[in-house]
Structures are given as structure tokens and as C-alpha cells.
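task queued by scheduler; priority normal; single chain, no ligands, no partner chains; default sampling; output format set to C-alpha cells
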Amino acid sequence: MREHIDLVEASTRPSKLETTPLPYGEKDLAPVLSKESLEYHYGHLAKGYAKRYNAGEGNADFNRAGSFLHNKFFPQLRPVKGANRPRGAVLALIEEKFKTYEDFKEAFKATAMKIQGSGWVYLSTGGDIKTIANHAVRTDICVLVDWWEHVWATDYQWDKERYLDNIWKIIDWDVCNERL
């Protein structure tokens, strides 16, 4: 059975990956993510997954999934401006599953803080908070938070909880609504 799955997965792999261009400037996510963090995270790491995949270097599945996840993560961010709260279908989903936005953030944080090492945390399109160890392609992502050390260490050092508290300031809820 696993051999069949591997053949199906291999037949659906793209021949070339591209990194989605940022819909904002390198300085626009500060103070949540600094220009230096964004340059390193997007310019070196995220683009590196696609580059290695396209060159046939390293683990193809890992690089493909890393590229996929970063292509979900970066477009759902926006510059800091005013109050930033979910609305529309995302808010309805959050309120249905968690009652309030504040309760959702607490549940999300509890799940994220249980991760030992690196990974991803996300709100699924079904309203569940899920994690991804390392990298893996998922088709049910609504809101995705990168939980790898490289995203928060430059700006927050050891305080990844503060990174998570601040990330909500730059989530583009319109993009997340489009995923529902």
C-alpha cells in the first residue's frame, strides 16, 4: 500500500517550485518581525526550499513541503495598522469552536507551547488547532503560524510566547477568509 501512495505522491509533485512574492515591503512587518528577520526567513530560508527542490538537492519532500508552508505563511501577513481582529467566516469559525477570539488565542498558544523543537501550528478549515512536525503539506490550513526558531529568535530571543502574542497583529484575515 505504501508503495502505491509513494507513486501517487511522486506523480503529483511539481517539476518546479516558486516562492510567492511578498505582498509588502521588508520593513512593513516591524515591530512584529524586523527587516533582518524577514530578510533571513523569506530571502534565505523560504526561497532556499524552492531552490533546493528545483536543483534536486536534499530531501525533495521536505523541501517541497517547506516551500508550500512558507507560500501559505507569508501571504497571510500584512503590515501593522490599527486593531487587527478576525472578521467574516474566520470569526464565525472561531466563535463556533472557541466562543471568543481571546479563547481561541489561548487555545492556540497552549497547543503551540507543547511543541518540543520546531514545527507549525494552524487553525484548520474545520476549526481545529493542529500542528505540523517539521514540514508537511496540508490542504486544510486556514491560519498558519511558523513555529520554527528562525522566525522568532532574532527578534524575541528565547521568548517565543511573545512572538505568538504579537503575530496576531499582522495576520491578514482577508487572506484567511479566502481559504474557507
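post-processing summary
- Residues 1-11 have pLDDT under 50 and may be disordered.
- The domain at 34-180 is CATH 3.55.40.20 (minor pseudopilin epsh fold).
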